[in-house]
Amino acid sequence: MPSFPVSCAVTLAMCVIALSEAGRSTAGGVDSDRAAEISDNQIFVWPLPQKTSASGPAVPLSPAFKIRTTSTSKRLQQAIERYTKWIVTFPAQRDAFAPEEPAAVASLQITVDSGTENLTSSTSYAYNLSVSIASSIAELQSDTVYGAMYGLETFSQLVVNGSLVASTIAISDAPVYGHRGLMIDTGRRFFPPALVMSLLDSMSYMKMNVLHFHLSDLCRFSVESVLYPQLTATSNGFYKQEEIVELVAYAKDRGIRVIPEFDVPGHSHGFVPLAASGDVVFCSDTRKQLCNDEKNRTISTLKHLFTEMATLFEDELFHIGCDETGTTATCPLSGTTALEQELLNFLPTIGRTAVGWEEVLFGSKAATPKTIIDTWSRHDASETTPQGFFTIESSGSHFYVNHATLPYTNLWTDISAKVTESNLHLLLGGEFSMWSDNYCYITQCYINSSKPVASWMYDRRQDSAFAASVTAMIWPRGIVAAGSFWNYQSAMDPKSVQFTNAYAAANQHLLSRDIASCPSKCTCNELTQCDKPYPHS
After folding, report:
1. How many domains does the chain have?
2. Domain containing 415 — which CATH number?
3. Angle of the 241-252 helix axis to the 193-205 helix axis, nearest 10
4. 147 neighbors 125 (Cβ within 8 angstroms)
5. What's the rounded Cα separation, in Å, for the pair 312 and 243?
6. What is the CB neighbour count within 10 angstroms for residue 21?
7. CA 320 to chain centre
8. Which of 416, 450, 484 is the last residue of a domain?
9. Is 64 helix (H, G, I), strand (E, B) or coil?
10. pTM over 0.85
11. CATH assignment of the domain containing 164
């Protein structure tokens, strides 16, 4: 994979343009005085916009360039402040600007059709961006403040060394799918709040809008509960309720929804602290799976707990797992089905729509007509949508980046490939996942016979190493998933030079904003980056 000079890091578009011009060696791609015409296929923004055209020489931004809007949205104003830092490089602009040149682009004017800051599964992220040589004003129009944020991201990718890549640009863009997510597993290894915020930042740069927060599993229950404080009394890391509220707000400021997942009845070893008081009952001595006990203690506790957790998370979706359950004498399949159905029917009464892994439909068969199915292993949307179920595609063979050897090319895939046109409206979108099994202190936090490859990073004293390791596992491969969920194009061969260059340039874009992505021309796994081991603290 080719490496790029630092100046290429500020814009994917410019790097691809530079590579497309044989014999050019300018570090920043196209100089501000370049006279060559830019053809449509040389403009490259990631994720790929729906419609793009550009022509004419690069045009400088004025040294007095401003981003303006009549919108009173505080979120948009904060986004403008963030993007101004990346777009406006005043010393470079002053050096590049010559007084005898025609008028430079003086401002980017943002118009937002709706002032609402509501963020839901139906929020529009559409935007239109235009630059004309006849005007000194670039224009960005969007349906919502969140679409405006994406337009700002695109604009930032079209600026290098104080100049726009072309004097005439027109981009009309919107995602194909409304659900474009990253799943992080804090039910095994705890993700510190600062790491989650960094991941939210990086997601926003790739126009992703859902953080799937897997908050309970075999190692822990990761959120403070006022009703059941013993859940986190001995936890090796958990989020205080005020930290959850802060993370949800931080995400919303970047147009990202946060969907909580508390995995039941399987994967429930994290509920062990509630067993001594009789608040939950387990199926067996392994205490991996919750039991639908005759006195309904488990169901009652889960209903109270889910009600409390729902107050911390604004989103309408609430994921309850329901994957990989087993059967025992005390937990027959019928009992598991009854427990899951009780919870699936309960969630709408507290204003939430239930999401479950594919087993809730194909295993226990507990899914109700309103349950959203999250496919990941043996099934996909071509099997769920004909049955009328809204579906999220999380295919492990394509989107599990916790597998260090997963080729980035696997993440470039059409998640609707086998879905009929009449059922496409039921495919909400996709997610890529970062499971933290390999960071458990012993296998799955309860099997003492072995230790995963990065077990030493489970210790909270190793938070720094873990943050670096897990971020480099997620990025840059997640760049490709983000592209698949935004606007997959079958004509783009992920093994081609064009795609490889775009992938590397997008990675440099993340690195330039202090995201600890795995560098280009480098191999990263749980323990090493560029063949150098992560240091123990």
Report:
1. 2
2. 3.20.20.80
3. 10
4. yes
5. 10
6. 15
7. 19
8. 450
9. strand
10. yes
11. 3.30.379.10
146 and 253 co-located in one domain:
no
- What are the DSSP calls for 293-348, one per residue? -TT-HHHHHHHHHHHHHHTT---SEEEEE--S----SSS-HHHHHHHHHHHHHHGG
Distance CA 186, CA 172 (A): 37
Say if residue 236 is in the same domain as residue 319: yes
Query: Could you give the CA distance from residue 342 to residue 345 in angstroms, rounded to a whole number?
Result: 5
In this structure, are 221 and 239 located in the same domain? yes
The token pair at 274 is 């509630």
Phi, psi of 17 (to 5 degrees): -60, -45
Q: Which residue has the tokens 């059941």?
A: 228
- Tell me the pairing of strands 59-69 and 105-112: parallel
Run means of pLDDT, 10 residues per run, the chain, 537 residues: 29 37 26 32 78 91 93 96 86 48 82 92 97 89 97 94 91 98 98 98 98 97 98 91 98 98 97 96 95 96 98 98 95 97 98 98 98 98 98 98 96 98 98 98 91 97 98 98 97 94 92 96 96 95
Structural domain for 319, as ranges: 179-450
- Report the alpha-carbon angle 210-213-217, nearest 5: 150
